[in-house]
Amino acid sequence: MTATYAETDRTGPGSPGSPGRAGAPAPGTPGPAGTARTVLTEVLAVAGRRLRRLGRAPGRAIGIVLNPLVSLVLLGFLFRDAITLPAGGEYTEYVFAGGAVQVGLACVGPTAVSIAMDLQGGLVDRFRSLPISRSAVPVGYTVADLLVGLVALAVTAGAGLALGWRSHTGLWPTLAGFGLVALFLYAMLWLGVLLAMTLRSVETISVVAPFIVIVLPFLSSAFLAPQSMPAAIRPVAEWNPVSAVIASCRDLWGNPATTGGGFPGQHPLAVVAVTLGVLLATCTAVSLRRFRTAGS
């Protein structure tokens, strides 16, 4: 992207590639070569820039890793003998799915803050002045943050293995469980993009993000069985989409699961398919539309 900036700054009104030249594409729209390969190149360029920025300031990536690690160590290790599951089983194996899903929740804030800062700093306007697809910018951000999230998920899995977590269903169901977590992670990244395009304030996002990371897991089956919660909170925990993702992962990994006769507990994969599908489609469509019109 640096080379693109330099070429844009050197072009004059009559030079080749200048926005003022007759027949040249308008700023912010793909030219005649706007094929899938061109868009992919633009997405990878934006993703590479994002990864370089994270490499120079790794604090946000470290925060993504620390959130699930703290949950696994404090709850899964220190309190493993103090918490009894209604259906029995090792609490360390029960809590691991909650820690894995928490990686996705922890990605919402850093993605939203980064895009909000770029909106406030004028970087988005600079992207809009370039003859590139505007969709490439948010997609590039989510691709880069997905890679960071997958690294955090791998670290969380290593910590879980060290603390005693095991999968009991074989290679392919185990990989399917992690694939489901990766899909959930990517949906959460687009939720972060939507938050940034809606709130546009770093201060406001910094208030909302901790609610997503901390409160949502405790209002689900991540750390406690819904049956052990107060009656007023139990339906919220059972129907929380996070609970459906966690229950599906526990089934795929053969880990202890919660007991319950409700539809979400009996058919978690169906709930995951509907909720994640609607969430990802809605957040992507709305975010891309708002990004294309940002600053207009």
TrEMBL record:
GO molecular function, one term: ABC-type transporter activity
Short name of any one Pfam family annotated for the protein: ABC2_membrane
Biological-process GO terms, alphabetical: response to antibiotic
GO cellular component, one term: ATP-binding cassette (ABC) transporter complex
Residues in ABC transmembrane type-2 domain copies: 59-294
Top-level lineage group: Bacteria
Keywords: Antibiotic resistance, Cell membrane, Membrane, Transmembrane, Transmembrane helix, Transport
InterPro entries to which the protein is assigned, alphabetical: ABC2_TM, ABC2_TM_bact-type, ABC_2_transport, Nod_factor_ABC_transporter
Segments of skewed composition (Low complexity): 18-35
TM segment ranges: 59-79, 99-119, 139-165, 171-195, 207-225, 269-288
Stretch list, region Disordered: 1-35
Membrane topology value: Multi-pass membrane protein
Record localization: Cell membrane; Membrane
Similarity field: Belongs to the ABC-2 integral membrane protein family.
Protein name: Transport permease protein
Species this protein is from: Streptomyces longispororuber
